[in-house]
Design a protein that fits this description.
Protein name: Mutator family transposase
Shape: elongated
Strand content: 5-15%
CATH architecture of the largest domain: 2-Layer Sandwich
Structural class: alpha+beta
Strand order of the largest sheet: 7-6-5-8-9
Mean pLDDT: 87
CATH superfamily of the largest domain: Ribonuclease H-like superfamily/Ribonuclease H
Distance between the termini: 50 Å
Number of helices: 12
Largest sheet: 5 strands, mixed
CATH topology of the largest domain: Nucleotidyltransferase, domain 5
GO molecular function, one term: transposase activity
Order of helices and strands: EEEHHEEEEHEHEHHHEEHHHHEH
Family: Belongs to the transposase mutator family.
Radius of gyration: 27 Å
CATH class of the largest domain: Alpha Beta
InterPro entries: IS1249_transpos (IPR048004), Transposase_mutator (IPR001207)
Low-confidence stretches: none
Function: Required for the transposition of the insertion element.
Helix content: 40-55%
Length: 360
């Protein structure tokens, strides 16, 4: 469609170059604007280096910043899911689930990385054959509650880093040096042979240094403490992991990952995107991460569908208002909003074009 003068009322007339038909209706460019904004968000271009003028690009991005992409719910049973959260300062975290093909299977925005927040993400995903995670932030509790039958593989690299944090990179004691070497070997275990060799070395280390680690001392306040607290803490952590039987779950399934590198790689790409477009406020950073996750699902919806079905600010305000009206008065803070961050809105509202009819 090309501009073809104006009507008698002063409205711009458009004419089709192919068939010659004329119309005065303005073409809907929202889908094109959204595509332009998403291409810019996923690219390395800044406002100044983009082909469009900065003001024009900002105007085209207004639609993207006013929408929230829907979270898919495909119900696919994956071979393995990698779970981790990316923190945006102290006020928000985006919990992400990544499948074995490095596609995003789901995400959830929360205030903190708690078991309640993880439960909301896990409850809308089908239980996979195995889960790989770092085991922090209430995730293990959520897995026990939501997916009790799903085997868990703790990230061996995270275990190595946790031990290194206690022993240091250059330990002073021989026992700490040997323990750190054991942690490094653990992160490289990938088959039954390497796991068995590590187990033998772990038992030898325990037998040699148990008496040394068990030494006690009396502090100034009269209490008895471990003489080597950090080393004793590292030993307790490894003992607990051995008892929980979550370090070598991958051996039951054959060729399965032992680390959370797949989701950590996605996290690094998300952080690189936020660095390229630095200066965004918290709300826009959250939406940028959500858009990144949506565009990296197996089959993201096209822009024409998103313009019509994505969550708008008006719908979000209406849901918060409904949550405020229906929440018990004891669950409100001084501002009048529900105290439970991210739990006041019915989750199904994000996945329906019509208002969700609550049975309550």
């Amino acid at each position: 469609m090309k501009k073809n003068g104006k009507t008698s009322g002063g409205k711009v007339r458009y004419r089709c170059a192919g068939c010659g038909a004329s119309t005065s209706a303005n073409p809907d460019t929202r889908a094109k604007d959204l595509r332009t904004a998403l291409d810019w968000l996923m690219s390395k271009d800044t406002l100044e280096s983009h082909r469009l003028p900065a003001r024009t690009l900002q105007r085209k991005c207004e639609l993207m910043w006013s929408l929230i992409p829907p979270v898919p719910r495909d119900g696919v049973v994956h071979d393995v899911l990698h779970l981790d959260g990316i923190h945006l300062g102290r006020d928000a975290v985006v919990l992400i689930a990544v499948d074995e093909t490095s596609h995003v299977a789901g995400w959830h925005v929360a205030r903190n990385e708690t078991s309640a927040a993880w439960n909301r993400l896990l409850s809308r995903l089908a239980p996979p054959d195995m889960v790989v995670c770092d085991g922090g932030g209430g995730l293990l509790k959520a897995l026990h509650e939501t997916w009790p039958e799903t085997p868990v593989q703790r990230c061996l690299f995270h275990i190595c880093m946790n031990i290194t944090q206690l022993t240091g990179k250059h330990p002073r004691y021989e026992s700490s040096r040997q323990l750190r070497n054991l942690a490094i070997e653990l992160s490289r275990a990938h088959d039954r042979k390497s796991v068995d060799e590590w187990g033998v070395k772990w038992l030898r280390w325990e037998a040699r240094w148990n008496a040394f680690i068990d030494e006690r001392r009396r502090s100034a306040d009269g209490r008895e403490r471990d003489a080597h607290e950090r080393l004793a803490k590292a030993r307790r952590m490894l003992r607990r992991l051995v008892v929980e039987d979550q370090m070598f779950t991958f051996l039951r399934f054959g060729d399965m990952p032992t680390t959370n590198n797949r989701v950590e790689s996605l996290n690094s790409r998300i952080r690189a995107m936020l660095r390229r477009h630095r200066g965004l406020n918290l709300e826009r950073r959250i939406r940028a991460v959500c858009w990144w996750c949506h565009q990296h699902t197996v089959s993201p919806e096209n822009c024409e569908w998103l313009v019509k079905h994505a969550v708008t600010d008006e719908r979000l305000d209406q849901w918060y208002e409904n949550a405020w009206r229906n929440a018990p008065r004891t669950m409100h803070d001084q501002t009048g909003m529900p105290q439970r961050y991210g739990t006041g809105i019915e989750w199904n509202d994000f996945h329906r074009s019509t208002p969700w009819q609550d049975s309550n």
